Amino acid sequence: MKMTGENNSETTMDDVKNLIKKKDEIEEQIKAYYDVLEDQGVGTEGPLVDEEGFPRADVNLYQIRTARHNISCLQNDHKAIMVEIEEALHKLHAREKAKREQDEAEAQEEAMEQQVTLPSPFARVDAVTQGSPACGAGLRVGDEVIEFGSVNTGNFQNLQNIASVVQHSEGKPLRVTVIREGQKAQMSLTPQRWSGRGLLGCNIVPIQR
User: Which residues touch 20 (CB under 8 Å, ≥6 apart)?
Assistant: First the structure.
């Protein structure tokens, strides 16, 4: 009695639940037939003939034989479905383990690719004032700058490069790209007058290379 397909990839938790449901139904049927035998007072092994070898007249022989036969068949079905449940759970756990390992490997590979492809930062944010344009743009202390408007790792010489871009971009959004916790983060920062000093409200220091 086969309950599921052979294909590993088709085994799902729903398949396992269905198998368990069928197992429970088989157990209910076996119990019902045992109740029949108990009512007749013979069980599965009790004799169906009297002391003289004649069929017993005090019990329903057909009902007893049918119940015993069905119990035997259902017990075989029960053994088969228990094997199927075990195999299905094994396949399910094996696939989940393989998927988890694959996800971990892909995440590791992605992280390594990011580390390889990220350009070297040329400056680091070491202060951000609350309520400033820099704070509003999402810049954080510790962010490592790889792009600030037209300034990037390839053309950065000193902080004057950034100061010049800021002076010429008052009121205009600048694209700022940073490395934060090993990941690239991009934001739009608009230099503008605010209640504090300067147009940004943050302090940027060069990274020595």
Answer: 85
Query: Nearest-CA neighbor of 177 among 207, 153, 208, 202?
Result: 153
Residue 153 corresponds to which tokens in the numbers above?
């790792």
Q: How far apart are CA 66 and CA 100, in angstroms?
A: 50
Q: Which range, of 49-53, 70-74, 78-82, 89-93, averages the lowest pLDDT?
A: 49-53
**pLDDT per residue as tens digits for the range 151-197:** 998 999 999 999 999 999 999 999 999 999 888 899 999 999 999 99
CA dihedral 195, 199, 204, 206 (to 10 degrees): -160
Distance, in Å, from the CA atom of 93 to the CA atom of 98, rounded to the nearest integer, reads: 9
Helix (H, G, I), strand (E, B) or coil at 13: helix
Q: Using an 8 Å Cβ cutoff, are 119 and 205 in contact?
A: no
What's the pLDDT tens digit per position in 4-34? Answer: 444 445 678 888 899 999 999 999 999 998 8
The one-letter code for the residue type at 8 is: N
Residues making up the chain, counted from first to last? 209
